[in-house]
Write a structure and sequence with these properties.
10 helices; alpha/beta; 5-stranded parallel sheet
Length: about 200
């Protein structure tokens, strides 16, 4: 039976890098974020419902979700976030299940669920054997995100503030990777060590 690992971490923690390393070691990745983005891309399964609930102004001329407009809206209106999640989460859940069945059919030893909102959603814990948290200090998170995305420091801090508190993520963790001052090689060595525990 495949080990089911929930992978999470704040923005700029290095979670995506860790997922790529685990995938390279043989894990089957289920990237909830990528699935979610797919539902809101042009022609995505969530687009019609988003247009119906929020109005056509939230859809770009290409037919995708206007992310910038929606981001501003959900930060200003907490109820809007819940409305959006009510549209997207069931679609993500269904596609995740389809990918899990495909991984099991391919005899995957370990399935890694990349779940940015693992702690916030509360519905994942019972579906997982283990929660792996990639942790970094807020200053490291801000530095990394500003460098890679060009977002203003205040914007990054706002995103961090909207995510689950660091303490809540750490409290939920079975395994923590402290990715503050690790080189890529050091991180890879740590991931390799942890992967052994998952049968990889």
């Amino acid at each position: 039976m495949a080990v089911r690992v929930g992978l999470t971490g704040g923005i700029g923690s290095g979670k995506s890098t860790v997922l790529a390393m685990l995938t390279e070691l043989g894990a089957a990745p289920i990237d909830a974020d990528a699935i979610s983005r797919g539902t809101t891309a042009a022609g995505g399964a969530a687009i019609n419902d988003i247009a119906r609930v929020f109005g056509p102004d939230f859809i770009t001329t290409e037919g995708a979700l206007d992310r910038e407009r929606m981001r501003t809206h959900v930060y200003a209106t907490p109820a809007a976030r819940r409305q959006l999640e009510a549209i997207i989460h069931p679609l993500v859940g269904a596609e995740s299940q389809r990918q899990v069945q495909a991984a099991l059919a391919a005899n995957a030893r370990c399935i890694v669920f990349d779940i940015p909102l693992l702690v916030e959603s509360g519905r994942w814990r019972q579906q997982l054997d283990c929660i792996l948290v990639v942790d970094a200090s807020p200053s490291t998170q801000v530095d990394r995100v500003v460098r890679r995305s060009g977002l203003a420091e205040e914007a990054v801090r706002a995103i961090i503030a909207a995510q689950a508190p660091r303490t809540a993520r750490l409290a939920a963790a079975d395994i923590v990777i402290c990715n503050d001052h690790l080189s890529l090689d050091q991180l890879a060595a740590e991931v390799k060590e942890i992967a052994r525990r998952f049968g990889l």
